Amino acid sequence: MATTAACFHLLVAPQRAVIYDEDPSEPQGKQYVGQAVWRTEKVEGRNGTTDIAIRAEIDIPDRNFKATLIIRRAKTALSMFSHIVEMTFQLSTGGGVSNVPGVIMKSDEQARGTPLAGLAIKVTDNFLLMSLSNVDADRSRNLQLLKERSWFDISLLYANQRRANIALEKGASGERAFADAFGVWQQ
């Protein structure tokens, strides 16, 4: 159990985060660079149990944009979903995030990626959940993508109907958080 407890620590090395905002006046859109800080954390489950989750704190200062991404497993064996991705957004322009059309995993920032199989729903303004499919083939592919790909590409639709993409690098701290979480989840 000592190794399990050791994985619940702050991994403070920030990784690259970039938001690409659609802008009608600029065909390439506008790019804002910030950082993502990855870590693992304990989360409370049903019946007083605890589990591990992966957390990314995203900060894009020049865009006045902050977001939190939390990935946790769905612990019931009969669940239709293998994992839940919670997305919370704080932004000053665009009227908030109304939809996340997809999450794509990529080998690098500019590569074409592969979408995670799942369904995103808006819970409240600026809080969305994506449930990852628990169908055998989908679950296997999703888990492989989460473990092996180095970048997340999250598509956003703002309330004002403009679009954006957030590219998040896992980097060393993200890779460590994912390795720690998957180590516990596979026990």
SS class: alpha+beta
The radius of gyration over CA amounts to 16 Å
Q: Number of folding domains? A: 1
- What strand order characterises the main sheet? 7-6-10-11-1-2-3-4-5-9-8
CATH topology: Immunoglobulin-like
Could you characterize the architecture of this molecule?
The protein has helices spanning about 1-5, 135-150, 170-185; strands at about 15-25, 25-45, 50-60, 65-75, 80-90, 95-105, 115, 120-125, 125-135, 150-160, 165-170. The radius of gyration is 16 Å and the shape is globular. The protein has a single domain, classed as Immunoglobulin-like (Sandwich). It has an eleven-stranded antiparallel sheet. With about 190 residues, it is of the alpha+beta class. β3 (about 50-60) and β4 form a beta hairpin.
Topology, element by element:
Blueprint: H1 2-6, E1 15-23, E2 26-44, E3 50-60, E4 65-73, E5 81-91, E6 97-106, E7 114-115, E8 118-124, E9 127-133, H2 136-148, E10 151-158, E11 163-169, H3 171-185
Antiparallel strand pairs: 1-2, 1-11, 2-3, 3-4, 4-5, 5-9, 6-7, 6-10, 8-9, 10-11
Primary descriptors:
187 residues; alpha+beta; Immunoglobulin-like; eleven-stranded antiparallel β-sheet; globular; disordered N terminus
Q: Summed up, what is this model?
A:
The chain is an alpha+beta fold and 187 residues long. It has three helices and eleven strands.
